[in-house]
Amino acid sequence: MDIKLKAVLYANDLYPEPIKGTLEDRMTGTTTKRYPQFTSERNDYLIENIYPDVHFKGGLGVIGAQFYGNSPDSTLGELVFTYKTDTVITLKSERFAFQDSLIASKQS
User: Fold this and answer.
1) Fewest CB atoms within 10 A around its CB: which of 16, 53, 59, 91?
2) What pLDDT, on the 0 to 100 scale, is given for residue 9?
3) By the 8 A CB rule, do 58 and 43 touch?
4) Strand, helix or coil for residue 92
5) pLDDT at 65
6) pTM of the predicted protein model
7) How distant, in Å, are the alpha carbons of 21, 23, 37 from that of 6?
């Protein structure tokens, strides 16, 4: 049985304000997907210094216990790496996994 409903995520480690979105969970059966899954409604969250000198803009989500920067629509999320006041590189992807000391993306 699948459940999908509107929800509000409170994740102060990720973003200081409540995040409106959709929560999806599967109660029975086996699947290759991890649950629960949360996807923000907005795709314009800005998190400055998510890592030192790395800034994120895009949607936010959770899959299982993992935080993600994601794309709830066709707009790609962005990671902007800076040095002093200069942008060094900008990466765009449908999803970025945020871990303690690692950023991962299957497609950029």
Assistant:
1) 16
2) 94
3) yes
4) strand
5) 85
6) 0.82
7) 6, 6, 12
Please say if the pLDDT value at position 106 is more than 60: yes
Under 8 Å CB-to-CB from 45, ≥6 apart: which residues?
15, 19, 56, 57, 58, 59, 60
Return the residue matching tokens 């992807």: 93
Strands 95-99 vs 102-104: parallel, antiparallel or unpaired = antiparallel
- Based on its alpha-carbon atoms, the radius of gyration of the chain, rounded to whole angstroms, reads 14
Contact partners, residue 98, CB within 8 Å, separation at least 6: 14, 50, 56, 66, 67, 68, 69
User: In the numeric block, which tokens belong to residue 36?
Assistant: 């629960």
Query: Tokens 């509000």 correspond to what residue?
Result: 8
